[in-house]
Design goal:
The chain has 158 residues and is an alpha+beta fold. The protein has two domains: 7-83, Cation efflux protein, cytoplasmic domain (Alpha-Beta Plaits, 2-Layer Sandwich); 94-154, SH3 type barrels (Roll), CATH 2.30.30.100. It has three helices and eight strands. The longest helix has 18 residues, at 54-71. The chain is elongated, with a radius of gyration of 18 Å. The protein starts with 6 loop residues before the first helix and ends with a strand.
């Protein structure tokens, strides 16, 4: 569905979500406001440095909805969806990579020569503020800059 929301609405929605999360181990991964005025959906994906249970997501959802309604940020009716990214969504932030060190990761990234993309599957062994390091089959280590990553997903062991 095409995005029909003004940039200032997106910015205000993001600011309110981040206000609710401030000072907690939880952080905003992705946010999308979509749909036509009066029937919009707000999808908020939150992750955490700690566990993120259903009760926590429900509490955050209530707090976000309260602020949206109090400030009348979204005109008319809207549907608010607050959830964790889940394993099927790509990692977006360095903070997420750091949290997943030790797990298998599939990374689609720009080739070092800059000519197209390639993919690697390996164990994420390091993540800093600039790049990740993956150990592939045979023990070879690959350092990949975040700027070169098109997408990366945690691979489940089953």
């Amino acid at each position: 569905m095409a995005k029909t929301v003004a940039p200032e609405v997106d910015a205000r929605v993001k600011a309110l979500v981040e206000e609710v999360l401030a000072g907690s181990p939880h952080f905003l991964v992705e946010l999308e406001v979509r749909g036509a005025p009066g029937s919009q959906a707000v999808d908020v994906f939150i992750d955490s440095d700690e566990g993120l249970g259903v009760d926590t997501l429900a509490r955050i959802s209530r707090e976000v909805a309260f602020l949206f309604d109090a400030e009348d940020v979204i005109a008319g009716r809207y549907r608010l969806n607050v959830s964790s990214p889940g394993v099927d969504r790509p990692l977006k932030l360095p903070r997420q990579y750091k949290k997943n060190v030790g797990r298998a990761l599939r990374v689609h990234y720009r080739k070092p020569d800059g000519d197209g993309y390639t993919e690697v599957l390996g164990d994420l062994v390091e993540a800093d503020d600039e790049a990740i390091e993956v150990v592939v089959k045979g023990g070879q280590r690959r350092r990949i800059l975040y700027a070169d990553i098109l997408w990366a997903k945690v691979q489940l062991p089953w």
